[in-house]
């Protein structure tokens, strides 16, 4: 069994980006600038955004965190988005999800200029991705593809079963894995809460991507020997005995499933760190595409 070490690979990618930033600085050009908009004080979102900002500092990007109060109106947020669209100093930005319930998420994501949409959530980028055109690929699926590539995991003709059809992970990874251009060429089954006989499908899978958010969902009796397992779940389980008051766990019963797997991602340290690395990569690409 080979551990797909997202922490290690993400550090490699960050080092590669940092080397490019050093070159940009040497030429006296403007370094990439990523901004993040956070509305409210959701604990997980604060952690993610904080981690994104720290990563920017580490690799030499400029970063701006725009932290707005929970009671920010949709109108105020849309005005902030428009400011960012027009600010020539910002190469790319993200609006951290989830947004408070009184704000229409789709309306906000639609307002992000596609050329600055480093999350790849705008319909223009999503559509371009589906059509194999140059776009921003959402960071989590992009990270999964990169992890498979760097470990030289064979995907051609392999049956990939994706669990979960979210717009952020399940749906885009099912598209990317089936594509010709990105060297995946897998055969994909996209499963979800209404799927019948899920176990029958996962037992046929050469690759399982689980993006469900249910701890220990995927057990050893659901996978075949030699399976490749990508665990996208990041669930916070309350635990008073820990300093932080919780621990992080994935969708996969790691202890059981790792005994049958040929490759498997750990949680934490698998897909999570790759997501941040690929967001930085997208920001670097945004800077290049803007011709700065
Ligand atoms: N919330 C959970 N994952 C993500 C992500 O990749 N981007 C943003 N903006 N919000 C998220």
From TrEMBL:
GO terms for biological process: L-histidine biosynthetic process; methionine biosynthetic process; purine nucleotide biosynthetic process; tetrahydrofolate interconversion. InterPro entries: Aminoacid_DH-like_N_sf, NAD(P)-bd_dom_sf, THF_DH/CycHdrlase, THF_DH/CycHdrlase_cat_dom, THF_DH/CycHdrlase_CS, THF_DH/CycHdrlase_NAD-bd_dom. It catalyses: (6R)-5,10-methenyltetrahydrofolate + H2O = (6R)-10-formyltetrahydrofolate + H(+); (6R)-5,10-methylene-5,6,7,8-tetrahydrofolate + NADP(+) = (6R)-5,10-methenyltetrahydrofolate + NADPH. Transmembrane segments: none annotated. One of its GO terms (cellular component) is cytosol. Residues 4-119 form the Tetrahydrofolate dehydrogenase/cyclohydrolase catalytic domain. Keywords: Amino-acid biosynthesis, Histidine biosynthesis, Hydrolase, Methionine biosynthesis, Multifunctional enzyme, NADP, One-carbon metabolism, Oxidoreductase, Purine biosynthesis. Pathway: One-carbon metabolism; tetrahydrofolate interconversion. NADP(+) binds at residues 164-166, 234. The keyword Oxidoreductase applies. Belongs to the tetrahydrofolate dehydrogenase/cyclohydrolase family. Homodimer. This is Bifunctional protein FolD. The lineage of its organism: Bacteria, Pseudomonadati, Bacteroidota, Flavobacteriia, Flavobacteriales.
């Amino acid at each position: 069994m080979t551990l797909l070490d997202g922490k290690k690979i993400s550090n490699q990618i960050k080092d590669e980006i940092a080397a490019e930033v050093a070159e940009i600085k040497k030429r006296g050009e403007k370094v990439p600038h990523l901004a993040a908009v956070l509305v409210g004080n959701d604990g997980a979102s604060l952690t993610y955004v904080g981690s994104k900002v720290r990563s920017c500092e580490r690799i030499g990007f400029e970063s701006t965190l725009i932290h707005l109060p929970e009671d920010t109106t949709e109108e105020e947020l849309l005005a902030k988005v428009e400011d960012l669209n027009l600010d020539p100093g910002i190469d790319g930005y993200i609006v951290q999800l989830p947004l408070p319930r009184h704000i229409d998420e789709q309306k906000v994501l639609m307002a992000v200029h596609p050329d600055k949409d480093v999350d790849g959530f705008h319909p223009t980028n999503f559509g371009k991705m589906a059509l194999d055109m140059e776009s921003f690929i959402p960071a989590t699926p992009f990270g999964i593809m990169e992890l498979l590539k760097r470990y030289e995991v064979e995907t051609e003709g392999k049956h990939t079963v994706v669990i979960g059809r979210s717009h952020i992970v399940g749906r885009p990874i099912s598209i990317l894995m089936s594509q010709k251009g990105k060297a995946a060429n897998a055969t994909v089954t996209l499963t979800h809460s209404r799927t019948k006989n899920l176990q029958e499908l996962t037992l046929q899978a050469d690759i399982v991507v689980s993006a469900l958010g249910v701890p220990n969902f995927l057990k050893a009796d659901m996978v075949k020997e030699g399976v490749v397992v990508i665990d996208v779940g990041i669930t916070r389980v309350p635990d008073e005995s820990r300093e932080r008051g919780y621990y992080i766990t994935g969708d996969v019963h790691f202890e059981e499933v790792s005994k049958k797997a040929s490759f498997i991602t750990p949680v934490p340290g698998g897909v999570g760190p790759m997501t941040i690395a690929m967001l930085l990569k997208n920001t670097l690409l945004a800077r290049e595409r803007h011709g700065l």
